[in-house]
Design goal:
The complex is a heterotrimer of chains A (233), B (285) and C (207). Chain A has 233 residues and is mainly α. Chain A has eleven helices and no strands. The longest helix of chain A has 34 residues. Chain C: One of its GO terms (molecular function) is ATP binding.
């Protein structure tokens, strides 16, 4: 019991004192995850749009695949990419394993199905009249897509935030693909795993607190956007 | 729950009186924290059943890094620790968390690296020269970076070589030995490993042994019972029984009989001075 | 030469026939009133004319040529605009909604002039900066009409334009329709309450 309170106290001190090692890890986490979300979002939105409004053979199958992909554990995605990127794997030439790029790829793979599924739901709720009106008023397809997405932007924002929350707290794929290398691929979740295995609970709790605060902030934002979305609908 | 357990034990004793010794321990569960090397190599899985059959104890093993294993002991979460980090073990005892450290065995560390051997480590004879060469040529080196026994050993060796490893070529992975070996294979890097993990994974690794046999690479294991004074509710009798068995002639023989690919992984090294005369081995309460 | 005639339109929903072999001229400066019960297919017919839905068969004759529905869609769709029963207004102000309909790349002064002129015509000048989603039923309908007119269509199809409106708003809408006829626009109005539109109606089609 003594451990929890004293470790938490030390954790707060570490955070507030601007401990560089700690903040470096936090920075790496955010850099990798934000990049992953930025890269995953455009194709995910496009795909969600096609699933919601397109009519093509295999659409239902694709929706089923996306929903199944949601249930794939992160470590499995990590392992698959590991085998692809490994020196003996088909993409081994690229020498990407144990780099931030590999982590970004893993997080994109994790975020993508969630982004598509949530954006699909948001777009399905969009008013078909919005699309028809935009097209009748002379909007190009691209502009009409943009208009429609703007109309359901709160739902799409929720999708983004939820996906970000998923990847920034994910340990399995990051550990496997990044390798938890200090100053380079050590992010918050892999650092927590390491500090715990070392018995350095204060560091672990400090990083846990960062994730907790982040989750809280994301939830507040989600709540805000979902509320907005309901008013707009 | 306790009723159920004792009922189970009772029935075991009735049905299999051969296996259960005449003394039935009051608290048959011993919780041991140890390093991944003893568990992953398969040593404990092979030797512990002998102890369990003989005494009726059941050993529950938690395999973690040395740092965490000691921490579990400090918190009284386990009854006994089996680790390899001499300085920390002595500190652990000095701080009153454990009663006494017993030598059990040692294994050795080796340096592995890419076949091409860019730092020409194979030509060196001592760890000091090897590490100096690696640093001088800035050849990739993956460190465990997880405060484990192996990591502590590695840091000690860098100290002895008078090199402060830093830079792009020196990667602190913060993962287990198996993962670090994999990573070193991928990155064509050197690393320090215990022989057990190496033997278990060498078939799949592109790496080769580049240095072995230096005296500084010996890795002694110690076993310590958690202090009963500090944590009265630990299974101290069980812990002591396990220690007594590990350092007994029988336990030591079991350790040296454990082999992978025909090679002994651990060399028994109990100090005769620490072994109690085998009068009352596992008396409880 | 300026004719716009739909020929032999047919549409079925499953086994139910909404209309078959329908010939429908849209005449400049005239208003066609479309009546029928709910579910008779008024909206479906209008959506087909506007190119939003597909008929089972049918052709269109325009400017001396005949097009299949497929060929017609890309060519003429944007000249025949359909206003939903509850028009969809985009997020943003009344001004933003009007600007949406303007051809991109128009000089700024030209944009302003067109928006102000049409807003004045629809009685929306005072509301230009108001959020579009908060307009009343009548204001929303007028904005939708004004927005559609900025596209300079040949025909305007209005689906129940006076639903959810008070007396004054309905009268204002009728006046605007009268004015559009004078400008030579082809109008089509669907309503299950035909009495209201007697004054502006030239032809009557009951489904």
């Amino acid at each position: 019991m003594e451990t929890i309170s004293s470790a938490t106290w030390q954790a707060l001190q570490l955070l507030l004192s601007g401990d560089t090692a700690l903040w470096e890890i936090i920075l790496i986490s955010f850099r990798v995850s934000i990049l992953a979300i930025l890269l995953a979002t455009p194709p995910a939105l496009l795909m969600a749009f096609m699933l919601a409004f397109g009519q093509f053979p295999g659409r239902r199958l694709l929706i089923a695949i996306v929903n199944t992909a949601l249930a794939i554990p992160a470590v499995v995605i990590g392992l698959t990419l590991y085998l692809l990127l490994s020196r003996s794997g088909p993409l081994g030439e690229w020498r990407l394993l144990f780099t931030q790029t590999a982590m970004v790829l893993g997080q994109i793979a994790l975020a993508f199905p969630l982004l598509v599924a949530m954006a699909h739901t948001a777009l399905q709720a969009a008013d078909r009249r919005a699309w028809e009106t935009a097209r009748m008023l002379g909007a190009s397809r691209l502009r009409a897509v943009w208009t429609l997405m703007y109309e359901v932007r709160f739902g799409l924002m929720s999708a983004l935030l939820a996906s970000f929350g998923r990847i920034i707290a994910e340990v399995g794929a990051s550990m496997m693909l990044g390798g938890n290398i200090l100053h380079y691929t050590r992010n918050i979740p892999t650092a927590i795993a390491l500090e715990t295995s070392k018995g350095e609970f204060a560091q672990g709790i400090a990083l846990g607190l960062v994730l907790l605060l982040l989750a809280f902030a994301l939830n507040l934002l989600l709540h805000y956007f979902q509320g907005k979305g309901q008013i707009a609908a | 729950m306790r009723k159920l357990t004792s009922a189970l034990w009772l029935s075991t004793c009735l049905v299999l009186p051969v296996f259960a010794d005449e003394q039935k321990p009051a608290n048959p569960i011993i919780k041991m924290a140890t390093t991944t090397s003893t568990q992953d190599s398969g040593l404990l899985t092979q030797i512990l059943p002998n102890f369990q059959k003989k005494t009726g104890y059941e050993v529950q093993v938690t395999a973690v890094g040395t740092g965490k294993a000691l921490k579990l002991g400090e918190n009284g979460d386990v009854d006994v620790v089996l680790v390899h980090a001499r300085a920390d073990e002595d500190k652990f005892v000095a701080a009153g968390f454990g009663d006494q450290r017993y030598s059990v065995m040692y294994n050795d560390f080796i340096f592995v690296g890419p076949e091409e051997d860019p730092a020409k480590v194979k030509a060196t004879k001592t760890t000091t020269d090897a590490l100096k060469q690696i640093a001088a040529t800035q050849s990739p080196f993956v460190s465990r970076g997880d405060d484990s026994g192996t990591h502590k050993m590695e840091k000690k060796l860098w100290d002895q070589a008078g090199v402060k490893p830093a830079g792009e070529w020196y990667r602190e992975a913060g993962q287990g030995m198996g993962e670090v070996l994999q990573m070193s294979g991928e990155l064509k890097a050197y690393t320090l490993t215990d022989r057990g993990t190496w033997l278990a994974t060498m078939d799949k690794s592109p790496l080769k042994i580049v240095l072995e046999g230096d005296k500084t690479l010996l890795n002694p294991y110690g076993i310590i019972a958690v202090s009963q004074k500090r944590y009265p509710d630990t299974n101290h009798a069980g812990a002591q029984a396990l220690i007594d068995w590990m350092i007994s002639a029988e336990g030591q023989q079991a350790i040296s009989d454990f082999k992978i690919n025909g090679q002994s992984l651990f060399t028994p090294s109990a100090d005769p001075a620490e072994v109690k005369p085998a009068t009352e081995p596992a008396k409880t309460n | 030469m300026n004719e716009l005639i739909f020929h032999q339109l047919s549409k079925h929903y499953g086994k139910r026939c909404l209309f078959t072999e329908l010939t429908l001229p849209l005449i400049a400066g005239q208003c066609l009133l479309l009546t029928g019960k709910n579910g008779a297919g008024k909206s479906t017919l209008m959506r087909i004319l506007a190119g939003l839905d597909k008929p089972d068969q049918g052709e269109i004759q325009a400017d001396g040529k005949r097009y299949s529905w497929r060929a017609y869609r890309p060519q003429l769709q944007r000249q025949i605009l359909y206003l939903h029963q509850q028009p969809y207004l985009f997020e943003g102000s009344v001004w933003d909604n009007l600007a949406y309909a303007l051809t991109r790349g128009l000089p700024r002064s030209e944009q302003h002039q067109q928006i102000e002129a049409i807003a004045d015509w629809a009685g929306l000048t005072a509301l230009l900066m108001n959020p579009a989603k908060r307009l009343s039923g009548g204001e929303a309908q007028r904005l939708a009409m004004a927005r559609a007119l900025l596209r300079k269509p040949r025909a305007l199809l209005l689906d129940e334009p006076t639903a959810n409106m008070d007396q004054a708003a309905r009268l204002l809408t009728l006046e605007m329709l009268e004015d559009l006829k004078r400008q030579g626009l082809r109008l089509m109005v669907a309503s299950h309450d035909p009495d209201w539109f007697q004054a502006v109606t030239n032809q009557h089609l009951a489904l």
